[in-house]
Structures are given as C-alpha cells and as structure tokens.
Specification:
By secondary structure, the protein is mostly helical. The protein is built from 19 helices and 9 strands. A 3-stranded antiparallel β-sheet has the order 4-6-7. Strands 1-2 form a two-stranded parallel ribbon.
C-alpha cells in the first residue's frame, strides 16, 4: 500500500488525494516528530508562567479574557472540542473527512502548533485504521478555520462521538478505537484549539475538485471536438497560429487538444457544402477553446493558491522558530474561498457552452442534415429531446451554484469574529458543481457520438480515429448508439460513469497520446 510521509514542509496535492481517496497510509517523519517535540517544550514553558497566553491559559474567542488555572486546563481543552462539535445536517463524504484529517495532521506536524508528538501519532493511527469521524454538512463559517467539522474529528481522537469504521458501519468512536488498539488522547494545553483552527476542510475539497476538473476539462475538449465533427464544422479555427496571437495558455492547450482529437477526420470542413452553408461556425463551436481555456487558466490560479495553502501552517496562536507564541489571523479562509467561488463560475460557463452545442446537434434547423433530436423515426421516436432538458436543468442549477459564497459574512462569537469567509460553503457548492458538470459533459458525449455514427452510417463519412476510439469504448461500456427509443436514464448514467472514471480520456489518448 502506498505511504504518504508527513514532514514539516507541508503536503502535496497528490498526497491529499492519495490519502483521501486511495486510502494511502500516513507516516510521520523523524523531522516532524522532532519539530513537534520542540514546539511542545515552548508551550509547556509558557503554561508554567503566570502570564495568560491565548489558547494555553485563557478561554477562547470572545471568552479569551478569562485566565484559566492549571487545574482546569485539561477540562478547557476537552470542553472546546465538545462544545464546538456542533455540526448539523447530512453527513459529509468519507473522502472529504479523510482529507480534512490529513491536512490538519499536516499543520500539526509543521511544529508550529505546540501539539505533543503522541497526539499527532494518534491522528495518523486513526487515518491508517480507516476510522472516519462523522462530520456534518453545516457548522463552518470558514474563519477560525472549519471549526465544527474539525471538532467532530478531534472528538473521535478523544474516543467520543460517532465514527465510521473501515467496513462502513457507524459506531461509537470509543469502540472503534478500542477495536484497533488505539488509545484515546487526553488533550492538554493548546491541543484542543490546535486541532480545530484551520482551513483544512475547504482546502481538501479544493484539492480534490482540482483533480476532478483537470480530467473534466480534458473531457470537455474531447466532447467539443466530437460536436464540431458531428456538425461538419471547420477545424481551421483551431490552428496554433490563431491562438498564438492571443496567448492565454489555457486557450492554446484546449485548441491543441481539440485539433489532435480531430486529426484524420473526413467529417470536418464541410461547413460550406451542405444545404445551409456557413461562413463560420456558431460561437458554441468556434469559441470552445476560448471558454474552456479561460477555465483552464482559472484552474491554474486555483492550483497556485492551493499549493501555497498546502505549504502553510494554519493555526492561532502559532509557535514561531524563535520560540515566540503569537496570535494571528492566518485561519481566515478568504484566499481559498475566493478561488472556490471562481471555479464555480468557470464550471457554470463551461457547462453552459457545452449544453448549447448539444442543443444545436438536436435541432434539425441548425444541425446541418441530422435528424430531429437524433431520433430513429422522428415523431414516433423522441430521440434525445429530454436528455437535453436534463442537461439544461443541470446548467440552470450550475448558474445558481455560481453565486459566490465568499461575499457573504455573518458575525459570530459576540462580534469578536466579525468577518468570516464562508469558504466551507463555497467548497460544498463547488463539489456539487463538479458533479453536475460531469453529467453535462456526459450528455454532450452521448449526443455527439450518436450524431457522428449517424453521419457515418448515412453518408459514409469517416470520423477521426480518436473519435472512433471514443465511440467504440463507450459502446463497449454498454452505452447504446443510434436506434429506436429506449429507456434513456441507464444510458445517460453509463455515459456519466464513463466520463467520471476517466475512460473517455483514456480511450482517446490511446490514439492521440497524452492530452493536456
């Protein structure tokens, strides 16, 4: 089994995905254990002094004015976890919780939090045992970190609350820890606070969304090329010299992807030869690289933000290298929240242009010789009419999901925390948006492959080899081609799985080589 080593320098996106989705094992480096021990010495020295230090010998948030004596500090740390584990609503997905736990361990291991090495080791042990705390949808404002979600995770370390075992059964956390030989932790000075105070949930969801969107943007380039081919459009608009004079990197990448998919097609270039000749293709076809490319550049910026955050130690207060313990505002989720919202906008627009191409394929007045709705016997058969309705409903929902969460702020903690990021909410809606985009791309794939097969069957025109590979793989996956009406939902679900699992990209790359 793959092992991800956690050191003091942060984490990689690949490591996050491996732990969250691939169940990779986690191991603390010797360097991290040494850094943990050094920082703990600083915290214990401060705890022994009479002067109050936030998080060590005071209350929290608006209650930080009270000095807490040594005899109450274990109770203080236990109480912050219990009181902050106040989430409500549906359970959050297992992979999100594993990412959340791993990223909190990443910050703890940096040596800037003052947590004891044994607490960090217990966090790793819980991940390795496949124990996943029950975390709820609502409870984070994205400032002071993802407080409620992280509190539910810390509660499991204490042997309290509920968690999901490796078999998927939810049981009391204490039972699960005992079954795997893990001792619950008794939190000491600063440790409860340090386990709660980070942007880990929103960051984990951002990292996984970026991985998904990289595949989806390549998939969307492929389906755009298939639609261009099915509409007998021209690939001359994809020429590198046209994109070199507007040098947005993503635009050039998308155009190059489409051009490689269309190499060898006998269907392209007939846009001026049919019964309704065109001087140029419609925007949804001709501008596909510009729209997808802008989204790719947005992804690149979001990766930059994610990489910076993965290299960060987000806590308050923090233990600095010179031994000082300082309060700060690094837990504010604004940098992550903004890009989560930005990505939701890009996703909505990519889905919008994708749906417009599907609609064009189904409209006999604009499809340049294809049957209405790609039906076998139009009138008796409705073809893909309602598949486009479903796609349109998804696009409409994506437009609502593109409304930014990060422009909202609700003051909390008796106005001490008077400006919050709502980054967790931005992350949750982006996850939904990614799922919807997968479905939108799948509908275009289903329509475009059927349209290409109708062109091939009716006029003997030969599609590009890469297009044939995509069609053959989709049909081998059990997704039907042209023919009389049938129960459509299973075919659409099959196309969705084909896109989500990366099989579309894999099939095409078997002909084109790696696409960007």
């Amino acid at each position: 089994m793959h092992t991800v080593v956690v050191g003091t320098a942060g984490a990689t996106a690949e490591g996050v995905v491996a732990v969250a989705r691939g169940r990779a094992r986690v191991e603390l480096s010797g360097e991290a254990l040494a850094a943990l021990a050094r920082a703990r010495e600083v915290v214990e020295a401060l705890a022994a002094k009479p002067e109050p230090v936030y998080g060590v010998s005071t209350g929290f948030g608006a209650l930080a004015t009270r000095h807490i004596g040594p005899e109450l500090r274990v109770r203080l740390q236990r109480n912050i976890v219990r009181s902050h584990a106040a989430g409500m609503g549906p359970r959050v997905e297992r992979e999100v919780v594993r990412a959340l736990m791993f990223l909190r361990l990443k910050t703890v291991a940096s040596g800037h939090t003052g947590v004891r090495p044994e607490v960090a080791q217990t966090m790793a042990d819980v991940l390795n045992a496949g124990i996943t705390p029950v975390v709820h949808e609502f409870g984070s404002l994205g400032c002071s970190g993802d407080l409620a979600p992280l509190s539910h995770c810390a509660l499991t370390l204490m042997g309290e609350g509920d968690a999901e075992g490796p078999d998927g059964t939810v049981r009391p956390a204490g039972e699960l820890l005992a079954a795997h030989g893990i001792e619950p932790v008794e939190l000491r000075e600063k440790e409860g606070l340090a386990l709660l105070n980070g942007t880990d949930g929103m960051l984990g969801m951002l990292v996984m969304a970026l991985a998904d969107l990289h595949r989806l943007y390549t998939s969307a380039d492929i389906t755009a090329a298939l639609s261009l081919e099915a509409l007998l459009g021209t690939d001359r608009v994809l020429a590198p010299e046209l994109h070199a004079i507007r040098p947005h990197p993503g635009q050039g990448v998308s155009a190059a992807n489409m051009l490689r998919v269309l190499a060898g097609s006998a269907l392209t270039g007939h846009f001026q030869e049919d019964e309704a000749p065109r001087v140029q293709d419609a925007y949804s076809v001709r501008c596909a690289p510009q729209v997808a490319g802008a989204g790719r550049d947005t992804l690149a910026y979001a990766r930059t933000v994610a990489d910076r955050e993965l290299a960060s130690s987000v806590d308050n207060p923090v233990v600095l290298a010179d031994g000082r313990v300082e309060s700060n505002g690094n837990f504010h989720g604004a940098p992550v929240a903004y890009v989560l919202d930005f990505l939701a906008i890009a996703v909505a627009d990519l889905a919008s242009i994708t749906e417009r191409r599907t609609d064009r394929l189904l409209d006999k007045n604009r499809s340049h010789g294809l049957p209405p709705f790609l039906a076998d016997d139009p009138g008796v058969d409705s073809g893909l009419m309602i598949a486009q309705y479903t796609q349109a409903a998804l696009v409409s929902e994506l437009k609502r999901l593109a409304v930014p969460a990060s422009v909202d702020s609700i003051p909390s903690s008796a106005m001490q925390e008077d400006h919050v990021s709502m980054g967790w909410s931005a992350a949750r809606k982006l996850r939904t948006a990614v799922e919807h985009l997968t479905r939108v791309v799948a509908v275009e794939l289903y329509a475009a492959t059927r349209a290409i097969e109708l062109r091939r069957d009716h006029k003997g025109l030969t599609p590009a080899p890469a297009s044939c590979a995509a069609i053959d793989a989709l049909r081998a996956a059990g997704v039907a081609g042209p023919g009389p009406d049938r129960f459509l939902a299973p075919d659409l679900a099959g196309a969705e799985a084909f896109v989500r699992e990366g099989r579309l990209v894999e099939a095409v790359e078997g002909v084109t080589g790696p696409l960007a």
